[in-house]
Amino acid sequence: MAKSLSERSLLAVIWAVLDRLSGSVLSFFITILLARLLSPEDFGLVAMVMIFFDFSAVFIESGFSTALIRQKTITEADKSTTFIFNLIAAVCLYAVLFVSAPFIAHFFHQPLLMTIVRVMGLSLIVNALSIVQHSVLIQEIDFKTQTLVRFAGVAASGVVAVSMAYSGWGVWSLVARFMVLDLVSTILYWVVSGWRPKERFCRESFQRLFGFGWRILAAAVLDKFYFHIYKLIIGRLFSAAALGFYSQAGNFSNMVVNVLFRTVQSVTYPVLAKLQDDREKLKTGYRKMLQMSSFVIVPAFTMLAVLAEPIILVLVGEKWLPSVPMLQLLCLSGLTIHFGTINLNMLLVLGRSDLSLRLEVIKKIIITAAILGGISFGIYGLIIGEVIASYLNLLVNVWYSRKLLGYSFGEQLRDVAPTLLISVLVGGVLFGLKHASHPSNPIYLFVLALAALFVYLALHLAAKTEEMQFIRHTILPKAMKIIDGRN
């Protein structure tokens, strides 16, 4: 018997969790090993290059991936048209980067960047070859295959990068890591997908997909530019080392988001897209997504902020301690990410990419004002401005949720209030214990974090919160049913 949409969704979540616990966690620990072997300057150089690569990747994808995923049925013409467009865009953008490499190196006063840009830029073309295969797997809610591909790519690239770093290759070990990951992932997507371009470029498919995707492209261009603008400013006005510290703080902050939130987000977008015609079910789905993502995101960022210094000291060493206050500030900003993303995804599911673009423009104006206000106070002024802007942008993100789905900001706050209160309480207790014991031993640090997690779950259980009830009476029974193989 075919599984219901809810069971397929839960199975996808299980595989997505395995993906994050395998691929993302493995990637994180590889980063820790590399951080011990390499210098902050090495990480800073690669962070400078990634600004331009992430920006280029947005143009290559051009919203086509999101448009494909939203399709109830993807035709061969849709696939082939997307593939051809992505590949042509990748070749063109690589050519632009190749020519621009000397100017990029001059901008950051780092001559080595010219060669790094030209070598790493080849990954743009490699990635473009697998965008369609990856999008189809997401649309089909096949996260098992994605998990296996991602793990293989992360493992292979990690072995190469760590071996090169240990042998003294410096920044080139980081370059090799990204290139091997992209190459292995693309090869495996082609092997497991079985799809090959069969038809020619179709104008009708292009117009339909780009008609939806161009606003996503415009919004993504703004988003990527402003996502990297802090790195751009820090790399230009300060130093590669300062950017390395900021990037390392971002690695820890992003680890929380990637493992605990992107897991749910990657599954729920294609699932909720299938409910786009039923507003009541859609609202219920988004409400539950906000509650459950807050249930894991808020306490994780709280504990990371409180234990930032011992975590940095134990995992990557004393040379990275300047990144501690940066990490604590980024944790404050990170608390808003899932709120904003969930509300923006709601607009895309409803087909209102026009509103998504409008909100992005407003938010970027706020970020620009924060940058102008903070830059005169140095690097910490910039980061504090980033935190303030993230909370102002949160208010902007939820505006249309109230109008289109009847889900106001006040209602959203009430839904997550128990998690917020319990997290603050546990964070306060953890702060006191940390200052009383000054944990520097890895085992003691782990026990302290585990105890905080136990208290957090116990308080939810005692308060009989909706989140805990949902886990006990919905998630666990369905998960056991899937694991046992019963329909």
Structural account:
The protein is mostly helical and 487 residues long. It has two domains: 1-236, no CATH class; 275-487, no CATH class. 85% of the residues lie in helices and 0% in strands. The protein has 22 helices and no strands. It has helices at residues 5-37, 40-61, 64-70, 76-108, 113-120, 122-128, 131-139, 143-166, 171-193, 203-237, 240-260, 262-273, 279-306, 308-315, 324-334, 337-349, 353-374, 378-397, 399-405, 409-437, 442-463, 466-484. α1 (5-37) crosses α22. The longest helix has 35 residues, at 203-237. The protein is globular. The N and C termini lie close together (7 Å). The relative contact order is 0.10.
Which secondary structure elements does this structure contain, and how are they paired or packed?
Elements: H1 5-37, H2 40-61, H3 64-70, H4 76-108, H5 113-120, H6 122-128, H7 131-139, H8 143-166, H9 171-193, H10 203-237, H11 240-260, H12 262-273, H13 279-306, H14 308-315, H15 324-334, H16 337-349, H17 353-374, H18 378-397, H19 399-405, H20 409-437, H21 442-463, H22 466-484
Helix pairs in contact: 1-8, 1-11, 1-12, 1-22, 2-4, 2-5, 2-10, 2-11, 3-7, 3-10, 4-5, 4-6, 4-10, 6-9, 8-9, 10-17, 11-13, 11-15, 12-13, 12-16, 13-15, 13-16, 13-20, 15-18, 16-18, 17-18, 20-21
Q: Give the overall shape.
A: globular
Query: What would you report as the Rg, rounded to the nearest angstrom?
Result: 22 Å
Number of strands: 0
Our count of helices gives: 22
Output the structural class: mainly alpha
Note poorly predicted spans. Answer: none
Give the helix proportion (percent range). over 70%
Mean pLDDT: 83
Element string (H = helix, E = strand): HHHHHHHHHHHHHHHHHHHHHH
Q: Biggest β-sheet: count, sense, barrel?
A: none
Distance, first to last CA: 7 Å
User: Into how many domains do the coordinates divide?
Assistant: 2
Share of residues in strands:
under 5%
